[in-house]
Design goal:
The complex is a heterotrimer of chains A (about 550), B (about 375) and C (about 55). Chain A is mostly helical. Helices cover about 65% and strands about 0% of the residues of chain A. Chain A has 16 helices and no strands. The longest helix of chain A has about 35 residues, at about 80-115. In chain A, about 65% of the residues are buried. Chain B is about 45% helix and about 15% strand. In chain B, α7 crosses α10 (about 340-350) and α10 (about 340-350) crosses α11. The radius of gyration of chain B is 28 Å and the shape is elongated. The N and C termini of chain B lie far apart (about 75 Å). With about 55 residues, chain C is an all-alpha fold. Chain C contains 3 helices and no strands. The chains are: A mainly alpha (about 550), B alpha+beta (about 375), C mainly alpha (about 55). The interface of A and C includes residues 298, 300, 305, 331 and 341 of A. Chain C: InterPro entries: DUF2970.
Chain lengths: ~550, ~375, ~55
């Protein structure tokens, strides 16, 4: 895993960046692999996170393509159902815990200190540790595929007792891997909170922070609140499997539904952990290319907080079919519908920011605009799913698969790509290749819709999730989905090409790479950002416009 | 941008083309119960609300994208707040949502009222079949997928109801309120028939309920909707809804057959009879895990052919099948199978695939054991 | 106190006048906002639960 990283500026270059010509007392960093193992620099750790998540994005993507290839036509054609279940499970686990979450953490590492004018993260060694836990966790998780009995095959939601009494022997390793990943997330979140609360540039108040910082602050609190719940539930599984307890085993007086309550109490805020930082990125990009201040900054902050609070009250909407009491059913339906309001506020704010702007369509903007449209479509299907009686028909069908992929792929993933395109000039000193980026965008946006839009129809027509073979009336939808999935998957190679080319060279970018409306603090340091920035805190000044 | 617009417009018009097209496999079925119709109406209502909001929001967005292009020399305005507009777009969605919550609540209240049912059916999920028990009627049977494996592997042409056909469908009367009680013997399954708009998880150790009152006779198909292991995709549901008279006739026939079967417990069975019956029981109940040739798929599902522990100890063998093995995937078949079936399948597994022990287990012996 | 409640209510809706927001951030104490915020969240949960329980009867 030789990491490809932005070219690091030499010592001379970086000292030019230091304001007021500060002397440089840093020892030369260790060379080779040790440099990366021991680094405490937020930019290097940020790059490590991003490279790791990109590798995992491709591994999870290959799993998805195995699933899609099997579903290309009716019948069992490529893999057996046992392996199919392992693929759907691993795809979900890897994409959620190893691709999307670390990608956002990587962006946070790179950008939060730069955006608040801090020299580094508050706890740099902890930062190094939280990253290096991840390769350990996911090597362990992926290794379960080669163990006797195979890897996890019970879906990424691992409902007991399928994941306890009936699980393959490797499940204990799966639990350990998730524990390690969870520790990494919690440590990362503590670090981010400490950085944001303590290390802002003099003069920067909370309500002056860029929205990416705000959304990450709230996300970090969510992480600290719910990762221990996940740790608890998987520990209970561990006890059930290895130590003869019966938390989830009905034969021993346990309750399988308890598992779902605990899992979704973690799982629903987890959904927002994967989307709130995306809101922050998009809220930075849209004003930059609409050349107009973000509409309703304060309401964006409030809406994000409201979504975070409400996210703790809606877990039951994943469980409408378990037979909750009517009052419970109604409570979760009402609270879920309420969440649509702050989410709507965000979309309206973005659209109003565009209104009477002066809009251009650079690659980050393309992805951000696609995010707004496609995330909103995912929001609409979410609203439909909130209607409990109708959910009896949608639940556990491809309609749900379509819904959460719209929120996560053209939602979270597109926002990450938008962020990468947006900040590449800052990281590398070069603009991404325009034509290639445009190809990447259009192939992705078409691929993603071809993949996931037909899934709405397949689900409504009655196709359940997580089946390796299907009745003949679903054949056309699945064929289109598979074609789209391969198109989307392979077009991500273009993304790699763009990033590699951008690291190597390209059109030189100035410090303020995207014009005067991308005016947060990161744009005041040179491009590429030197290894050490803001060693003397900048004085924060509120934007003029 | 324009391509995106065209794609979206295409997608939306596809969705909204016509009610008729929607009904034919692109949309939720309207279904054959009052409640399924109500749910369909709710679904279409919220769908059209989303479409209208979408048209407005995306309309403004794409208008802005086209009208205020930097390349056409657009100059940005300088506004970033408007309390009136913000209150408006918070309040209006809130009102729309309340408008949706009211009918949804009403429908939910009806779904949650299984009182005055005329027939109770216990539905038990098992890896990977359904068991139906007409409570108080002495009729119970298992329902397995009947699509041949050869079709799945593509060696035979696939039939019209590929993966959606069973050996014994659930038979229900129309125009009678039927209450379902759901439970599971192993993992969580979900019983779902789209035409009834009934989807209910079956949870081991718990009983959940739901109900249906079918308006039209016909054959309705569904599938298990909760991942339940390797054959999750292969446990379909078929319901045969009959006129009330036909149903009563059917039920009487089944009761008679059940009574006849009960008589069989007391008589002595020949080895051949037991083997024949055992083979069919094995094929529908055991082979999905232990495989048709008894080779199993270790480590989860041990091989039965040449299984020394099983062949050495007949009492252990009986106990395992009747009571299951706790902490493993082996369920108890105490209630799933009747004494004849239990005896037959024990005999079969002790004599098939070269196990040739010569042991014949009599139903009477099993019945006695069950009573202890 | 009433001012704090009003501001928190505005935050629940996600709407606030810029002036008022500035005033809150300059004169209000963070602790008051957090306490009122938590209490009002509890009230919100209570209200939704009440409506649900009443509707379920």
């Amino acid at each position: 895993m030789a990491p490809k990283v932005p070219p690091q500026p030499t010592l001379e270059q970086s000292s030019t960046a230091v304001e007021a010509g500060h002397g440089h007392a840093h020892a030369a960093p260790p060379k080779g692999i040790m440099r990366w193992l021991l680094t405490t620099n937020h930019k290097e750790i940020g790059s490590l996170y991003l490279i790791f998540s990109l590798i995992m994005f491709f591994i999870g993507g290959i799993f998805a393509l195995v699933v899609r290839a099997e579903l290309f036509q009716p019948g069992l054609n490529l893999v057996n159902p046992e392996f199919f279940n392992q693929m759907t499970t691993m795809h979900g686990l890897i994409m959620v815990f190893a691709a999307v979450m670390p990608a956002f953490t990587g962006l946070a590492n790179w950008m939060i200190p730069l955006q608040i004018g801090a020299p580094d993260m508050a706890l740099p060694r902890l930062n190094n540790f939280s990253f290096w836990l991840l390769p350990v966790a996911f090597t362990l998780l992926l290794s379960t595929l080669f163990m006797p009995g195979g890897g996890p095959n019970f879906g990424w939601t691992f409902y007991a007792p399928l994941s306890t009494t009936y699980a393959p022997p490797s499940t204990t390793f799966f639990i350990l891997a998730l524990h390690i990943a969870g520790v990494s997330s919690i440590l990362g979140a503590i670090n981010i909170i400490a950085t944001i609360l303590n290390m802002r540039a003099p003069g920067m108040r909370m309500m002056d922070m860029p929205l990416f910082v705000w959304t990450w602050l709230i996300t970090a609190f969510l992480l600290i609140a719910v990762m221990p719940v996940l740790a608890g539930v998987i520990t209970m599984m561990l006890m059930d499997i290895n130590f003869g307890t019966s938390f989830f085993n009905a034969a021993g007086g346990g309750d399988p539904v308890l598992f779902q309550h605990l899992f979704w109490f973690f799982g629903h805020p987890e959904v927002y952990i994967m989307i709130l930082p995306a809101f922050g990125i998009v809220s930075a990009i849209i004003p930059a290319f609409a050349r107009k201040r973000l509409f309703g900054y304060a309401s964006m902050v409030y809406a994000t907080s409201a979504i975070a609070l409400l996210s703790f009250l809606v877990w039951g909407h994943h469980m409408f079919a378990v037979g909750m009491p009517l009052a419970g059913q109604l409570f979760f339906m009402y609270s879920t519908m309420l969440i649509a309001v702050p989410t709507g506020v965000k979309v309206f704010n973005w659209v109003t920011t565009l209104f009477r702007g002066s809009i251009s369509f650079e690659p980050p903007m393309l992805f951000a605009l696609a995010f707004v449209v496609l995330f909103t479509i995912g929001g609409f299907s979410g609203l439909m799913l909130a209607i409990a009686p109708a959910d009896f028909q949608y639940h556990d069908t491809y309609f749900v698969v379509a819904h959460f992929h719209y929120v996560l792929v053209p939602g979270a993933v597109f926002s990450i790509m938008a962020g990468v395109y947006f900040w590449l000039p800052k990281w590398t000193g070069h603009y991404p290749h325009l034509r290639l980026s445009q190809w990447h965008f259009w192939l992705s946006v078409i691929g993603v819709n071809l993949t996931f839009f037909p899934m709405h129809f397949a689900g409504l027509a009655g196709m359940p999730r997580r089946i390796p073979d299907y009745a003949l009336q679903f054949a056309d939808f699945n064929l289109v989905s598979t074609v789209g999935a391969f198109m989307f998957g392979f077009s991500q190679l273009l993304f790699v090409a763009v990033v590699v080319l951008c690291v190597r060279g390209g059109k030189k970018a100035p410090a303020q790479a995207w014009g005067e409306y991308a005016d947060d603090l990161e744009w005041t340091v040179p491009s590429p950002a030197p290894l050490h920035t803001f060693e003397t805190p900048p004085t924060f000044q509120r934007p003029a416009h | 941008m324009r391509t995106l617009l065209v794609w979206l417009a295409g997608g939306l018009s596809l969705v909204g083309s016509s009610q008729a097209a929607l009904a034919s496999g692109w949309n939720m079925p309207v279904g054959v119960t009052d409640l399924s119709r109500e749910i369909y109406t709710l679904h279409m209502a919220i769908f059209w609300i989303c479409v209208v909001i979408g048209v407005i929001v995306f309309g403004v967005m794409f208008y802005s994208l086209i009208r205020y292009r930097h390349s056409k020399g657009a100059k940005a305005a300088n506004f970033h707040e408007n309390t009136t507009v913000e209150i408006l777009w918070t309040a209006v969605p809130l009102l729309i949502l309340i408008g949706m919550a009211v009918p949804a609540t009403a429908t939910l209240q009806k779904i949650y009222d299984p009182s005055d049912a005329e027939l109770d059916v216990m539905i038990t999920g098992q890896q990977w079949r359904w068991r139906y028990e007409y409570l108080g009627e002495d009729v119970a049977f298992n329902s397995n997928m009947s699509t041949p494996r050869a079709q799945i592997r593509g060696e035979e042409e696939r039939g019209e109801n590929y993966l959606l056909e069973v050996d014994e469908p659930l038979v229900l009367p129309i125009n009678r309120k039927v209450r379902f009680l759901f439970t599971s013997d192993d993992v969580i399954h979900a019983w779902w028939v789209p035409d009834f708009a009934v989807k209910q998880d079956t949870i081991p150790g718990f009983i959940t309920e739901n109900w249906v009152n079918i308006n039209e006779p016909g054959i309705y198909r569904g599938q298990c909707a909760e991942l339940c292991g390797v054959d999750h995709g292969f446990m379909p549901i078929v319901v045969h809804a009959m006129e009330e008279d036909d149903f009563d006739t059917w039920l009487a026939e089944r009761q008679e057959a059940a009574a006849e079967e009960a008589l069989g417990v007391d008589r002595e069975w020949e080895m051949d009879e037991l083997m024949e019956r055992g083979e069919s029981v094995y094929g529908s109940i055991c082979s999905s895990c232990h495989q048709p040739e008894g080779q199993g798929s270790p480590p989860a599902f041990p091989a039965l052919a040449g299984n020394e522990e099983m062949l050495a100890d007949i009492e252990w063998h009986k106990d395992t099948i009747i009571n299951g093995v706790s902490g493993t995937a082996m369920p108890s078949f105490r209630t799933t199978l009747n004494p004849v079936e239990l005896a037959a399948v024990i005999t079969y597994t002790r004599n098939a695939w070269g196990n040739d022990t010569g042991d014949a287990v009599q139903p009477s012996e099993i019945a006695e054991r069950l009573e202890r | 106190m009433w001012g704090v409640i009003k501001s928190v209510l505005a935050a629940f809706l996600g709407v606030q006048k810029d002036q008022q927001r500035r005033a809150d951030f300059e004169h209000g104490s963070a602790a008051a906002f957090i306490v009122v915020g938590v209490v009002m969240t509890a009230v919100l949960v209570g209200v939704i639960a009440m409506v649900a329980i009443l509707a379920a009867r």
